[in-house]
């Protein structure tokens, strides 16, 4: 580790902190309908859809509309991918996507996961990339934002279970937030060197006299929204390590800032909308503490390097002429610190874009990205998804604290009863069940082991990481697992759908139940939900729930691999 490395991490943290408040103000204005400069377009959207944006929907109607929209858009994407070969804007003449791959991809982009068990540049036509994958990058992000805003409304008001209008939330988020920002950011990426065209693959002659195929396509436009909407994925198989997607150190920093910008600002929007800024900053502080610990552990592990390499004569010491540490699987343009920071940020935020090979990280370096996803990606998290996941943990913390002091638990004046805690438990169990059960099935089945390139604890880590990533709607991977099989295409698709909608429905139900509760005035016995004490309680609850659920699996994977590495053994 170096002073320069920690300085870069501190600079990144400062940028996120500085952007949090202004972005929070913009989010409030968007979702309260106070931005009207695109009002004619907004009204046209409602008219074409035949919906009334002024209708305050019950949580069941909100959930039904969201599920219907997601189902229809997923089916449309499946159809386009299957018909890709006969549709326009396919200059390379790519074949139709296979049925199993089309199902997994449609599920992946509908759920904001962007898991890709294929090479994008050689599988998806320009039309598929633009009309379907990029489309979902916008609307799946808007879905997550809508659920978060619905949850905030459930906390802040008493409305007989009514939490807003799903169609208004989808349109406003897309129209006023994601589209304008992405347009500007796309131009920035183009200026920095990201490509943006509809050209076919170029065949060029190398300096050695050979030939090389260089894929072309609409890259910059997807790069902007994939980071801003915490979608992840990439036009190229190499993702954000590819110079056409992430050409400079500035675009690397910009990408990381974009990943956390809206999730961070949304926490402050919560404070403004509920009239409790102290509570919002406490939640933000809890997120920041967990993020800092994750970055510190990953950076330290990667900077220390692999002792097995040292035993083979590799110099792990950082000098003016050598980066030292573990550079395996990392871009020399970004180095260890920016690879470690990017890995933690992208997995904390449900993004999944990567600029390094996570499978080549040291065991502890790979453990932290995996743990981020298993904790529910509540460390800022995906746009919207991170906040409503964190608010579920806040409700659980309040409930447990109430039990400890013998009082009826209340959250911001609203009693947390049986129905509310049932939804919290259902939310937690759904993701845990998908990750652990599907991993267990895969490690004992021939189909699950068929695509595994490693044995022992690292092989287990690869499967565990894959199901953690798909269920958490992240999309990054330990690439030692071949996921492009019928078995994994099917199970990953199911895991992504469970990880998205089996969590969204309980979250919306919890919001609706809270909206039905009357707001009681605070008393001397009310648990304060701001300040250092609640921050410690919240962080402790998140870590304890995660440890109790996933520690046994992690102990058999990255933890035992770390111990074996220290003893000079590796699988």
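Sequence proposed for the structure above (571 residues):
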């Amino acid at each position: 580790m170096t002073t320069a490395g920690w300085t870069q991490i501190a600079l990144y943290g400062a940028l996120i902190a500085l952007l949090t408040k202004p972005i929070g103000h913009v989010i409030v204005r968007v979702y309260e309908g106070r931005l009207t400069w695109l009002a004619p377009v907004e009204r046209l959207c409602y008219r074409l859809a035949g919906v009334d944006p002024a209708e305050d929907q019950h949580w069941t109607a909100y959930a039904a509309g969201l599920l219907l929209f997601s189902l229809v858009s997923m089916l449309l994407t499946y159809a386009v991918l299957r018909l890709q070969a006969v549709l326009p804007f396919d200059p390379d003449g790519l074949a139709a996507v296979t049925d199993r791959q089309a199902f997994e991809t449609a599920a992946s982009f509908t759920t904001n996961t962007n898991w890709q068990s294929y090479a994008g540049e050689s599988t998806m036509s320009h039309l598929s990339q633009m009309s379907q994958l990029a489309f979902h990058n916008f609307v799946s992000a808007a879905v997550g934002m809508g659920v978060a805003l619905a949850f905030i409304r459930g906390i802040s008001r008493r409305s007989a279970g009514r939490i807003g209008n799903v169609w208004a939330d989808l349109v406003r988020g897309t129209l006023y937030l994601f589209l304008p920002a992405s347009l500007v950011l796309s131009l920035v990426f183009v200026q920095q060197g990201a490509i943006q065209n509809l050209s076919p693959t170029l065949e060029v002659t190398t300096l050695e006299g050979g030939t090389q195929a260089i894929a072309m396509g609409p890259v910059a436009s997807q790069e902007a929204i994939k980071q801003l909407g915490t979608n992840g994925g990439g036009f190229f198989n190499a993702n954000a390590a590819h110079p056409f997607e992430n050409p400079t150190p500035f675009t690397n920093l910009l990408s990381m800032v974009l990943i956390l910008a809206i999730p961070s600002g949304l926490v402050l929007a919560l404070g403004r909308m509920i009239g409790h800024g102290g509570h919002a900053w406490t939640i933000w502080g809890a997120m920041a503490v967990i993020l800092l610990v994750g970055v510190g552990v990953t950076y330290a592990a990667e900077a220390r390097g692999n002792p097995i390499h040292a035993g083979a004569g590799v110099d792990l010491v950082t000098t003016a002429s050598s980066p030292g540490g573990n550079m395996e699987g990392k871009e020399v343009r970004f180095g260890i610190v920016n690879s470690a920071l990017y890995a933690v940020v992208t997995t904390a935020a449900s993004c999944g874009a990567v600029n390094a090979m996570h499978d080549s990280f040291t065991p502890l370096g790979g453990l932290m990205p995996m743990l981020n996803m298993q904790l529910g990606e509540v460390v800022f998290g995906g746009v919207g998804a991170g906040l409503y996941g964190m608010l579920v943990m806040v409700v659980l913390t309040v409930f447990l604290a109430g039990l400890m002091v013998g009082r009826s638990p209340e959250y911001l004046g609203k009693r947390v009863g049986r129905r509310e805690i049932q939804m919290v438990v259902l939310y937690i169990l759904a993701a845990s069940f998908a990750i652990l059960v599907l991993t267990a099935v895969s490690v004992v089945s021939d189909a699950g082991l068929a695509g595994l390139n490693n044995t022992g604890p690292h092989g287990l880590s690869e499967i565990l990481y894959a199901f953690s990533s798909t269920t958490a709607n992240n999309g990054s991977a330990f690439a030692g697992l071949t996921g492009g099989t019928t078995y994994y295409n099917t199970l990953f698709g199911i895991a992504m759908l469970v990880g998205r909608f089996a969590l969204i429905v309980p979250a919306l139900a919890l919001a609706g139940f809270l909206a039905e509760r009357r707001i009681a005035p605070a008393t001397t016995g009310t648990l304060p939900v701001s300040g250092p004490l609640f921050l410690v309680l919240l962080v402790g609850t998140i870590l304890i729930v995660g440890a109790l659920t996933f520690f046994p699996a992690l102990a058999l994977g990255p933890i035992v691999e770390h111990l074996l590495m220290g003893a000079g053994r590796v699988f």
